[in-house]
């Protein structure tokens, strides 16, 4: 791209959507600058995984970071504080670091936000930390002028140590591996949209936002997990497509096997949004060796967050880099959504 074309291009909401436009920006502008090798770096930025892995002495240390923006700040099932802790703990967990050591927290607060609201957010962060078995140990606070930032933005960075040889990439699928989803999909994104727009929807809509490190630990203990990721921005569709593309395999998914709550499905149909395409904040997608898939599902179902875990498909040699959805009436490609359907949800 010429300098003039680069200067004329502007950032759009789609650049933050976690799908194709985000990936293009990272590969074109970020990875060439920061994706090189470094001493002790086992997994770096160029992997575009959920975190980096550093070899420090005889330990493998995982580092991940995320900035959290959500509207409204509070929603059924959680708020931006619970989201910030859970999102970072979950990124550590799906790298294999299920016992987080420490979190940082940077608060960017708009002038005029009530102290009471901010303390409610901090209380939620504290409760989520207790659930995850970690603590915020350092941080920073900035206050912006009225209108300069929308309410509260939280950045959290997480650090965890891997058990010996426990790093699990999102790119580890092999043909024959089973695809396992730990619980219902679409809860977070559909709940946020309904709350934001003030829709009166029959049935309970609640975000799934929660730390999943105990759930991931149960899966790792029960069987051979070859790949895993948390399907946040872009939802299950994007997660499965990224896993297939990175591993150079195809994925065949049984639509009827994917757990979706009735209220989420009905609301998604009403709004014209596929629950497969929206963010989840307490769900994990696993690739599991077929011989241990049943054991992994049983272990997940024994945890509070994994009661509806299910095998939803498998990695195949056909349709390399693509996801094929078997609807029960036929088959079609399951493509990742373009842009960002629901801005400010995670």
UniProtKB/TrEMBL annotation:
Residues 175-325 form the PurM-like C-terminal domain. Pfam families: AIRS, AIRS_C. Residues 49-161 form the PurM-like N-terminal domain. Residues 1-22 are annotated as: Disordered. Belongs to the HypE family. This is Hydrogenase expression/formation protein HypE. It comes from Haloplanus ruber.
